[in-house]
Amino acid sequence: MSQKKPQMQVEQKVPENIVKKTARDTKLREAVAKRRTERLAANKTRRAQWDKNAQAYENEYKAADKSLIDNIRKAKSEGGFYVPAESKLILVVRIRGINTLNPQVRQTLRLLKLRQLHNAAFVRVNKATIEMIRKVEPYVTYGYPSRAVIKNLIYKRGYAKINGQRIPITNNNVIEQQLGKVGIHSIEDLIHEIVTVGPNFKEANRFLWAFKLRGPRGGFIAKRKSFINQGDWGNREDLINDLVKRMI
Amino acid sequence: MTSVPLVSVFSADDSSKVTAKHIPLPAVFQTPIRPDIVSFVHTNIAKNRRQAHAVNPQAGMQHSAESWGTGRAVARIPRVSGSGTHRSGQAAFGNQCRKGRMSLPIKVWRRWHRRVNIKQKRHAAATAVAATGIVPLVLARGHRISQVPQIPLVVEDKIESYEKTTDALNFLKRFGAFEDVQKVVSTKVVRAGISKQRGKKYRVRKGPLVVYFNENAKLLKAFRNVPGVEVVNVTRLNLLQLAPGGQLGRFVIWTQSAFAHLDKLFGTYRYTSIIKDGYQLLRPLITNPDLARIINSNQVQEKVQPAKTTKVLHEVQKKNPLKNSKAMDRLNPYAKKQRAAAVAAIKANTKGTKKIKKNKALKKASRAAYNKVAASLNDATKAAVQEEQDIKVKYFSVQKGAAQTE
């Protein structure tokens, strides 16, 4: 007379681990989603600001061009000459290799960020930098870059120095992270700072890695001679733009 | 720890019958498995059975060899003195020479034995015993234990009174240990190398280890002739038998009294050992093996930092913004408007200009005039060409004629 044993009531319990983990995971997912919406909204306002800035700079450049032309015309009409201000910015390009260099020249080239053949770098013009460039004159060619060349250099060959690494400038976060605190948020801001040699030129130029250019299509004339002597090294003023266009 | 692992003691005659249920496992079997200690102790202890040997101290040196010095167009190695035989003048003594003595000849006073700290030896033994109770380790060591009813296998003391080998064999067969013995038999091979001429002809595997307790047990003789089986008293457990080759997990068959003696031998986590004076079993580094539970516990999760996201600052490949409009728009949203403005400007520039209407009549007339000129020109050129050809023919025919005459 065996009595039927009562069925053991087993409630389907979910293990504690899994309960805790799912709770945690949903919380994390919600946080991520929230961050995303915030980020997207922030990006929208940022992009609007970049747009606005770029537009403002374009107007500024147009105005600067126009004022130059107006001044020249005015001076001509008065029978005089208009001498525009000397350029505040120099683009230096290294045209000599690394062998058999005088140690002082070697060091100065390093200070100018020109560690390699065909490296180019922007340099602010002041007494100190003029002296430096004079020291390395036979090994470099330099001149006053135009706005278009500056723009092309930064867009096509622009790399940033972040934590000692050479990072391509593929988006404005790269710029924002390093230069946001000095008010440079986008690539157009950066270009403007370089072109006008603004108050934060030091940071902006420091941020830029040296431009690694290719050898000029069509070649140099004669690197052993100075530009003045129908060669290549030294100051070639505005003609640096023609050279760099062939090297970009 | 409120729950203790339990073990059954099996009847010697019937492997399905259990004489004592639920005996608690001795604390030794809870020792953390430390293969590092075992391997260290084993490599040293294994050296203690060695017998001193040496090379004959005079080997290779029983010559009055002397170097001939320089100036005789031979190497400066000592050479055998005398004459009248091939051997004279040959090189001697050096390790590089034929018939020379070896470099650093072995001496009997080489340090053959190693001492190991007692505590290390004891920890190693404890770990080795613990490993005999872990099925995966025993399997990994290569024992055939798939038919064995329980690991650790504990059997009543009756087997200690076995005198006949048949009894021993039948016992092993009953408990599924015979497969291990068969493995030993079938894998007995002649040893490679010269040791076979020095008394170690066969390489034999290790089979089960039978551990007993009572000193006047007769089972030693019964199990002695079974290949692979070793018998040892529990008070004299040997690491070289518990972990042969330094490998943990020997298949061990315990008698009930031997099993019970282990607590006295090694002590427990509550009491130090009586026999190994003052010895305390190794404690594990962590007592809770449930890592998932630990990681997911509130205490750990409170302190845990949020997971790092691998956020890359820049795109993997740099595209040229001057050519790639998508890359450009990413950097400069105003560029899109500039492009649109440029296109609009071109359109605007060409807006006012009229399309030049084609005057068909004019076209026809000019075509006719051109053809006339072309034709007249053609006549002139035709005449010129013909003239040239006539001259050529004349010239060549003259030549031909000249050749023929010569």
Automatic annotation (TrEMBL), chain A:
<dbReference type="InterPro" id="IPR039699">
    <property type="entry name" value="Ribosomal_uL30"/>
</dbReference>
<feature type="domain" description="Large ribosomal subunit protein uL30 N-terminal eukaryotes">
    <location>
        <begin position="14"/>
        <end position="85"/>
    </location>
</feature>
<comment type="similarity">
    <text>Belongs to the universal ribosomal protein uL30 family.</text>
</comment>
<feature type="region of interest" description="Disordered">
    <location>
        <begin position="1"/>
        <end position="29"/>
    </location>
</feature>
<protein>
    <recommendedName>
        <fullName>60S ribosomal protein L7</fullName>
    </recommendedName>
</protein>
<feature type="compositionally biased region" description="Polar residues">
    <location>
        <begin position="1"/>
        <end position="10"/>
    </location>
</feature>
<dbReference type="InterPro" id="IPR005998">
    <property type="entry name" value="Ribosomal_uL30_euk"/>
</dbReference>
<dbReference type="Pfam" id="PF00327">
    <property type="entry name" value="Ribosomal_L30"/>
</dbReference>
<dbReference type="GO" id="GO:0022625">
    <property type="term" value="C:cytosolic large ribosomal subunit"/>
</dbReference>
<keyword id="KW-0689">Ribosomal protein</keyword>
<feature type="domain" description="Large ribosomal subunit protein uL30-like ferredoxin-like fold">
    <location>
        <begin position="91"/>
        <end position="140"/>
    </location>
</feature>
<dbReference type="InterPro" id="IPR016082">
    <property type="entry name" value="Ribosomal_uL30_ferredoxin-like"/>
</dbReference>
<dbReference type="GO" id="GO:0003723">
    <property type="term" value="F:RNA binding"/>
</dbReference>
<dbReference type="InterPro" id="IPR012988">
    <property type="entry name" value="Ribosomal_uL30_N_euk"/>
</dbReference>
<dbReference type="GO" id="GO:0000463">
    <property type="term" value="P:maturation of LSU-rRNA from tricistronic rRNA transcript (SSU-rRNA, 5.8S rRNA, LSU-rRNA)"/>
</dbReference>
<dbReference type="GO" id="GO:0003735">
    <property type="term" value="F:structural constituent of ribosome"/>
</dbReference>
<keyword id="KW-0694">RNA-binding</keyword>
<dbReference type="Pfam" id="PF08079">
    <property type="entry name" value="Ribosomal_L30_N"/>
</dbReference>
<feature type="compositionally biased region" description="Basic and acidic residues">
    <location>
        <begin position="18"/>
        <end position="29"/>
    </location>
</feature>
<dbReference type="InterPro" id="IPR035808">
    <property type="entry name" value="Ribosomal_uL30_euk_arc"/>
</dbReference>
<keyword id="KW-0687">Ribonucleoprotein</keyword>
TrEMBL record, chain B:
<comment type="similarity">
    <text>Belongs to the universal ribosomal protein uL4 family.</text>
</comment>
<protein>
    <recommendedName>
        <fullName>Large ribosomal subunit protein uL4</fullName>
    </recommendedName>
</protein>
<dbReference type="GO" id="GO:0003735">
    <property type="term" value="F:structural constituent of ribosome"/>
</dbReference>
<dbReference type="GO" id="GO:0006412">
    <property type="term" value="P:translation"/>
</dbReference>
<feature type="domain" description="Large ribosomal subunit protein uL4 C-terminal">
    <location>
        <begin position="278"/>
        <end position="351"/>
    </location>
</feature>
<dbReference type="Pfam" id="PF14374">
    <property type="entry name" value="Ribos_L4_asso_C"/>
</dbReference>
<keyword id="KW-0689">Ribosomal protein</keyword>
<dbReference type="InterPro" id="IPR045240">
    <property type="entry name" value="Ribosomal_uL4_euk/arch"/>
</dbReference>
<dbReference type="Pfam" id="PF00573">
    <property type="entry name" value="Ribosomal_L4"/>
</dbReference>
<dbReference type="GO" id="GO:1990904">
    <property type="term" value="C:ribonucleoprotein complex"/>
</dbReference>
<dbReference type="InterPro" id="IPR025755">
    <property type="entry name" value="Ribos_uL4_C_dom"/>
</dbReference>
<dbReference type="InterPro" id="IPR002136">
    <property type="entry name" value="Ribosomal_uL4"/>
</dbReference>
<keyword id="KW-0687">Ribonucleoprotein</keyword>
<dbReference type="GO" id="GO:0005840">
    <property type="term" value="C:ribosome"/>
</dbReference>
